[in-house]
Write a structure and sequence with these properties.
CATH superfamily: Vaccinia Virus protein VP39
Bound molecules: S-adenosyl-L-homocysteine, 3,4-dihydroxybenzoic acid, magnesium ion
Number of helices: 8
Largest sheet: 7 strands, mixed
Strand order of the largest sheet: 3-2-1-4-5-7-6
Shape: globular
Helix content: 25-40%
Number of domains: 1
Structural class: alpha/beta
Distance between the termini: 29 Å
Radius of gyration: 17 Å
Strand content: 15-25%
CATH topology: Rossmann fold
CATH architecture: 3-Layer(aba) Sandwich
Number of strands: 7
Length: 216
């Protein structure tokens, strides 16, 4: 091999997590309240928020879309990287999750930026105009990712970002008998991405694996 790759393990993840911004008091409260409300703790990792925020800043993003709001953690984290007149639309299928997130977004410092919409990615993404969005973050039903990606290649502007969570399939990517029913869908998506013309993408191994792509 002409290149060097360090085998990244749990130690490295812990090491880098300790060297990136953690959650502030508000996000700590939000996560605790979400658990109290019976919402699963499946948010992205804080170091993923750091990377998403850096990337959004680099492209001066002002129009951002997320699929899969959950409690609003990643939406608020990303919105904090945007200017005050920006807009982050986050789509959530579960009415319970959408209502919880809307309540917490309203209490947050980015209430003017984030709009929580209750609905499915399948129904809402097709309503977005061509080339109108600077960045999209996919973090919802994994079986929906291929359709979301096709839509994203239409509504994201040239030079915009397409990002997707869980490339490592909840840690079960290489399991022979995975217990999570979405592992197959993640594997299929991981194999689908490299076939998309006009998208340059790479899996960044933070959190549960983050696809980062730029639309050419
Ligand atoms: N991005 C969040 C975590 C999202 S978890 C964070 O890091 O803070 C995945 C969410 O996707 C769940 O809340 C689930 O209800 C939602 N979801 C599942 N199917 C969906 C669909 N078809 N459209 C939109 N959201 C969906
Ligand atoms: C699950 C979904 C996610 O998006 C995630 O980051 C972790 C877990 C899940 O459905 O179990
Ligand atoms: Mg995820």
């Amino acid at each position: 091999m002409s290149h060097t790759s360090t085998q990244v393990g749990a130690e490295h993840f812990q090491y880098l997590a300790q060297r990136t911004a953690g959650d502030d008091a508000f996000l700590v409260q939000l996560k605790a309240a979400a658990i109290q409300a019976g919402i699963p703790a499946i948010q992205v990792a804080p170091e993923q928020i750091s990377l998403l925020a850096i990337l959004l800043r680099l492209i001066s993003a002002e129009q951002v879309v997320e699929v899969g709001t959950l409690a609003g953690y990643s939406a608020i984290g990303m919105a904090r990287a945007l200017p005050a007149d920006a807009r982050l639309l986050t789509i959530e299928y579960s009415p319970k999750h959408a209502e919880f997130a809307a309540t917490w977004v309203a209490k947050s410092d980015v209430a003017q930026v984030v709009e929580v919409v209750q609905g499915s990615g399948q129904n809402i993404l097709p309503t977005l105009p061509d080339d109108s969005i600077d960045a999209v973050f996919l973090d919802a039903d994994k079986a929906g990712y291929p359709a979301y990606l096709r839509e994203a290649m239409r509504f994201v502007r040239p030079g915009g970002l397409i990002m997707a969570d869980n490339a490592f399939a909840f840690g079960q990517l290489f399991d022979e008998k995975p217990t999570d029913p979405e592992v197959g869908a993640v594997r299929a998506f991981n194999d689908f991405i490299p076939t998309i013309e006009g998208l340059k993408a790479v899996i960044v191994p933070i959190g549960d694996g983050l696809w980062v792509g730029v639309k050419e």
